[in-house]
Amino acid sequence: MGTRVALFFLFACLSMACARRHASAAVGFNYADALEKSILFFEGQRSGKLPPGQRLSWRGDSGMSDGASNHVDLVGGYYDAGDNVKFGLPMAFTTTMLSWSILEFGDLMQAQLEDAIAAVRWSTDYLIKAATAAPDTLFVQVADPNVDHRCWERPEDMDTPRSVYKVTSQSPGSDVAAETAAALAAASIVFRAVDPAYSKKLIQTAMMVFDFADRHRGSYSDSLSSVVCPFYCSYSGYHDELLWGASWLQMASENTSYMSYINSNGHTLGAEEDDFSFSWDDKRVGTKVLLSRGFLQNRVEALQVYKIHADNYICSLIPGTPGFQAQYTPGGLLYRGSESNLQYVTSTAFILLTYAKYLDSNGGSALCGGGATTITAGDLVSLAKKQVDYILGKNPANMSYMVGFGERYPQQVHHRGSSLPSVRAHPSPVPCNEGFRYLYSSSPNPNLLVGAVVGGPDNRDGFADYRNNYQQTEPATYINAPLVGALAYFAAAGKP
User: Which family does it belong to (predicted)?
Assistant: First the structure.
């Protein structure tokens, strides 16, 4: 085990001490149950040949010929949300965040750790195939969403074209390629102890894909605009992903060139730009928090700039501090956008807890207004808990926004497989247009997508639970992925 990797796991083990220190903050919900369900959700999003241990048994095999039109094997991976498209950018980000959740809080997951690692591997198996099928090529999407959305079909019944899309040296996609590199690099650390050979394959593929992303610069939104926009357009550009990918490769490999890359390119790639959200599109906040650990732990002066800007982000979230600019609903939920707002809430909760751990383990604090205000690790844990508790049911509607958790939760989730009769109950296919009667039905979904966190309420805490209200009722893998780590923290903190 290399020095950097050993340090990462040593540092991760400190999360238990941090959780214990703030244990009183976690009393409230059955966070362990929520953690189990949040991981189970990923089984409902699986594409490909399902394993014998598949627990959400209403799902069946799907997408079994994906890639065949291009003579490549692209079977597997995840559907990102409620449709039947496999989008590479959010899938890779989901994988990075699942891996980061395990690296920071895996020692707190106990019985759920094996399933969390399996959720990562379901994606990385696919991403490896997408990255190695052809030289200087990354396959980044299966299915045209414009065509897919004309039908309301179970994934098991898909009869729309499974078109394949790729980025190449002539049609670059540095954003999706660098995020894929980040996902494979982060996962390589997860597997280093449990499957060394697989870990080596992951890091080797990550290095190759990052090199491709950096050598052939450009946004995949320009190369593939008709099928990725407006669904997963890279609005932030690709600079943030290059710095993010390099940061994970620096963490995972023994190659010092990645730290040199960060030091040489950080300024032009956004190291000194403040941004106040962290999502599948914009990685600047995550990069700064990740790299600030190097300054806090080892006092690497070149990384101090990341600590400063990570502090700026934290200050933007805390009411009453210099730099505060976040918006909260009357019920106390962080609010960033009208569509799928909970994606920003779960990513923020994870970042708050991770940064709290970094600060707590190194005797640091976040400084606002040039040091006029000091924010402690406990302050960050408290804010994260409010956001997680809101999702689980402590909100004006007294509703859990996680399907299957609590007594009251969304019944009409915007999700094809969940809303249509399962292949077990209705073996014959439900044709394209016939499925829309289920979309517009007022009945609850027949199949429970356990653990799915939906888009969530609006800026006044309002939530309309009907299936066609995709802005609020559609789940997504990248909503759940960071929540896995946050729930692991609170599940452990709540134990005596």
Answer: Belongs to the glycosyl hydrolase 9 (cellulase E) family.
Rounded to whole angstroms, how far apart are CA atoms 376 and 378? 5
Question: 4-55, pLDDT tens digit by residue?
Answer: 444 454 444 455 566 556 655 555 799 999 999 999 999 999 999 999 999 9
Provide the residue ranges of all domains of the chain, joining segments of one domain with +. Answer: 3-493
pLDDT of residue 7: 43
Strand 327-328, strand 164-168: pairing: unpaired
| pLDDT, mean over the chain | 93
Across 292-448, the runs of DSSP E, i.e. the strands, are: 327-328, 334-335, 366-368, 373-375
pLDDT digits (tens, 9 = 90+) for 258-308: 999 999 999 999 888 888 899 999 999 999 999 999 899 888 888 999 999
The pLDDT of residue 272: 86
Measured between alpha carbons, how far is 11 from 123 in angstroms, rounded to an integer? 26
CATH number of 3-493: 1.50.10.10
Query: For the stretch 360-390, what's the b/e string if a residue is b when 16 or more beta carbons lie within 10 angstroms of its beta carbon?
Result: bbbebbbbbeeeebebebbbbbebbbbbbbb
Burial of 255 (0-12, 13-18, 19+ CB in 10 A): middle
SS3 428: coil
- From CA 225, how far away is CA 219, in angstroms rounded? 9
What's residue 21's pLDDT? 61
Q: Is the Cα torsion angle 403, 404, 410, 415 positive or negative in sign?
A: positive
Q: Which residues pair with 453 in a beta bridge?
A: 402
Give the H or E element holding residue 17.
helix 15-21
Strands 137-142 and 164-168: antiparallel
Strands (E), 133-175: 137-142, 164-168
Tell me: pLDDT of 84 over 50.
yes
- The pLDDT score that the predictor gives to residue 213 is 98
Residue-wise burial string across 175-212, b where 16 or more C-beta atoms lie within 10 A, e elsewhere: bbbbbbbbbbbbbbbbbbeeeeebbebbbebbbbbbeb
User: Positive or negative CA dihedral for 372, 378, 380, 386?
Assistant: negative
Catalytic residue numbers?
414, 465, 474
DSSP 8-state class, residue 68: G
Name the DSSP letter for residue 169: S
pLDDT at residue 109, rounded to an integer: 97
